[in-house]
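Record type: ASSEMBLY
Status: queued
Input:
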Amino acid sequence: MSAGKLSEQARGVYIIAATPFTDEGALDLSSIDTLTDFYLGCGVHGFTLLGMMGEAHKLTPEESLTVVQRVVARAQDRQVIVGVSHAGLENVRRLAHEAMIAGAAGVMVAPPPGLKGDEGVYNYYAQLFKELGPDIPVVYQDYPQNTGVYLAPSVFERLVDDFRQLVMLKHEDCPGLAKLTRIREGEKKPGRRRVSILVGNGGLYLPQEMRRGADGAMTGFAWPEMLVQVCALFADGKAEDAEDLFDLYLPLLRHEAQPGFGLALRKDILRRRGIIASSFVRAPGPKLTRDDYNELDWLIARLERKLKDRGVMPAKVA
Amino acid sequence: MSAGKLSEQARGVYIIAATPFTDEGALDLSSIDTLTDFYLGCGVHGFTLLGMMGEAHKLTPEESLTVVQRVVARAQDRQVIVGVSHAGLENVRRLAHEAMIAGAAGVMVAPPPGLKGDEGVYNYYAQLFKELGPDIPVVYQDYPQNTGVYLAPSVFERLVDDFRQLVMLKHEDCPGLAKLTRIREGEKKPGRRRVSILVGNGGLYLPQEMRRGADGAMTGFAWPEMLVQVCALFADGKAEDAEDLFDLYLPLLRHEAQPGFGLALRKDILRRRGIIASSFVRAPGPKLTRDDYNELDWLIARLERKLKDRGVMPAKVA
Amino acid sequence: MSAGKLSEQARGVYIIAATPFTDEGALDLSSIDTLTDFYLGCGVHGFTLLGMMGEAHKLTPEESLTVVQRVVARAQDRQVIVGVSHAGLENVRRLAHEAMIAGAAGVMVAPPPGLKGDEGVYNYYAQLFKELGPDIPVVYQDYPQNTGVYLAPSVFERLVDDFRQLVMLKHEDCPGLAKLTRIREGEKKPGRRRVSILVGNGGLYLPQEMRRGADGAMTGFAWPEMLVQVCALFADGKAEDAEDLFDLYLPLLRHEAQPGFGLALRKDILRRRGIIASSFVRAPGPKLTRDDYNELDWLIARLERKLKDRGVMPAKVA
Amino acid sequence: MSAGKLSEQARGVYIIAATPFTDEGALDLSSIDTLTDFYLGCGVHGFTLLGMMGEAHKLTPEESLTVVQRVVARAQDRQVIVGVSHAGLENVRRLAHEAMIAGAAGVMVAPPPGLKGDEGVYNYYAQLFKELGPDIPVVYQDYPQNTGVYLAPSVFERLVDDFRQLVMLKHEDCPGLAKLTRIREGEKKPGRRRVSILVGNGGLYLPQEMRRGADGAMTGFAWPEMLVQVCALFADGKAEDAEDLFDLYLPLLRHEAQPGFGLALRKDILRRRGIIASSFVRAPGPKLTRDDYNELDWLIARLERKLKDRGVMPAKVA
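Status: finished
Output:
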């Protein structure tokens, strides 16, 4: 909780934390702890909880709060962002307050489905920012594949100009490279703030996005050590090395980025790595078959061979 | 709570109750009471709470429970159905249990978005029915315009054959007349149960649906007395009279059935009729303009004139 | 062809013409003639061909051209608008030229799916208007239920200000009453043109829309004489009479407005009225069942009884 | 035209051919020839024309036919599949006949949007197969991300059992690996035919799909020589080598697989490789910026360095 509030300076990897369950489907607090420790050991710069990949909608309200409190308590000095998107604005407000009281550094809000046009998007967030007040830092989650709501760069700029609490863009429109560039260009206008941009989409375009001005990643790839190192290499100006490292993991990253199915793969990799006890996914959700497991065996064996060849060491589990 | 469990015998009007707020947006318990009394005075056969038109997603979990308890306590011997749809199956289970403990006669469940094909729909409900057990009566809410999930008649029949707790179809696919006929035809198969079918879509096709075998309506039209009487006339074999009455209200019914916008109209009519104190709609939601009010004035004046001409008396407010 | 070019002055009923086929599915030229004559006899002010309800996408390119030429040749001095929407801009251009050469007064263009945000819509039409040049009058078809593309009033206004060839809005967003009012309000700005607005959605909100400033209807209801008279009564300031007449037909208008299914109903009514030879709908499309026919019998019998009671005469078939 | 009819035996790479335009947007016949020769030089086993990536919907009917005739005339003994999907069944029939007369080996058909449930899909294809007759081989294009229509494995099996002309599945549901496995398992049922399965999705999961029983790829990656060699290595049982080769190209393949944007990248790569004269994309379509070109420079430089390191030679341009 000494992590401070989320700001435009945020960079690096804010890992989207999986939510571990027992094989019977109960929340697994002990695995939350080992997972949190593992992420810390990987060097992540922050956490994002209750995002879509965290199975937030499958948790009860009490479980959601438990997850936030448990991770915050163990996250040392790292910031925790909490997803509070909801179809009702009053619920966004309530969830945001609960999250901040529980120690969150900021909240992440995606637009509800059904907003119409540029004005619809601007007005929703304007009303939200007024409701939340200036003291709760907000991340705009731009994920139109899921919400059906398009964010125009000019709308984002108006929101940045008008509301200081908007400090970060979670960028996962796709194709979205041009939008990222466009927003960074727009920030050169005198007087406009430069916000933090962390990228999602499973990290699939991370090197291209870093080159275009992203500050890091907000995704949940099961080898977070790679994400951390890629961001560090970019920060050191070693783009070529960063991309070499990224490419080693790309076959698995692409495999894990399959919509829907990918969450089950991610949890199973974390289980295999000894970080969580079970790869259980709550219903409705994908179930892995024997073929899926064999395929994963093969892909992981290939990755490990390549890492060994290059002398790259995966992160250790405590 | 002496209303008993929901069964295949259900018929008549299960009114989708609006959720009244104060002008400041707080839950208005007193208006819930007057609204409940009004619905009872109209002769409704049951209540449906926390449906999409009840702004369920804009209530906090505590508010939702309060609404259910308040209505159940005042609903005399009428059955209360509670909407418990949720993206996570575990949450459906939990909400269903809460509702039943609070005195619901049954629960209504729409499929979550993303179910794939006939098997996807069957499997979701099969798993749900197993989780809920045989003692919680369930209504299948078939509203693909909103969920994106199509219910094939053959899938519904398999579910009816396999799970006795499935007692009702909330029918609001559109165009959906053929599906209604098809399901009633299918029920002639020896050994298959005949379930209750109540229709939605704002009541827009109520006479046609009654003629094709519907047992009544589950919608929230702001003149519930018409819905009740139309169902009664059909039950008495007076189809022509039923349709004459329905047609008087059709201009307003059609006006109120406008997607999104209609909820604000409905609440404002209830306010004008003196049944709830405020027509406040929680954000994000439509706001009425001066033009909308004038238009409503005109339409209501026309309705009242026509009712007077025919000697029809609107329901009284206690 | 002496009808002149479409302009902002257009008003009244531009009937969306059904496309008649034989029972074997071939284009029925003779029924096109009788249908055209019938529409003329109803007093329509213009025709709209190759819209979505005209089954345009089920015609071959040659058949499409034949339909346009046939109607134009027989339409006397009435204007013919031709739908030329297409996923490729080059095809829109080509189809527009073909239509104008065949004698169309203007063309109607809906946005292709996938346009992003207000800029996406503006840019598409700006490019289109440049390609078409200033001499082809264009109708913007605003039908987001089908295209998925939202038209903001401010975008429409920019297009009106920048391109004189944009002379009409085909209004069928739903709910869309507020948008209509908003556009009429915006036109009070000095220097802005007032465009023609004709409304669709099967005519379901025609009286409300006329009161809010619509100039008429562009839809295909099977009793066009009602649409014509309602528009005429509104033009004469007899709103109350207009709405009385409209309400007589509303049960059937609402029935015909069912998505998908409605086209088959409309064609069957035209067949029953002796105007076209067959109600055949090309695949994939709805097929009417015995229940559908009986239902239609009942509804039409009710309408005819009510018309007779009020002394209203349906249009005669030549 | 000596290529014979498409059959269940088809395997290898059926390249989705780009459609080259001049810088002014006209069809570039000369580039069609050089592109066809290039694909042949890469060793492709067949061609797929007028698919979504071929900008089919931006061609006039005459241009479409020209493309087919031009490629067929130059494709030596390779089979040409032509996409004939259309919203109207009659147009599918007509386009299929035109394609076969022009020398196609078979046609590819995606379901039109709006089909409802398993029966809706079955019935559409059953009617289509009856219309086309047994002599036109058909590929089912399963691309629900675009069509919104889900294909259940059991529906595909019924179609395979009932209609011999269904010889291939173009597999690009995503996630779709389980479906592929499920279909191959189902084919073990005595009496069921084994159909050809070629995979799309830009080739993003090609190695996994080959391992699960795919027969090859139907996609348009700008280095087709890789696709050909990967398929050949799999055919030779050298899965590990295949995947090593695939991984070299994966960064670019993933980059090119970006929806919408990818087509412009693909055409620009083909232009850079000297195969087509211009990377022009018809409107509405993406335009590349300076940043996009620089990014592509970098990614291609990295690929070429890696290929050189491993001694892999790119295909030569004649």
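Annotation: Chain B touches chain D at residues 116-120, 150-152, 154-155 (CB under 8 Å).
Annotation: The CA atoms of residues 4 and 105 of chain B lie 6 Å apart.
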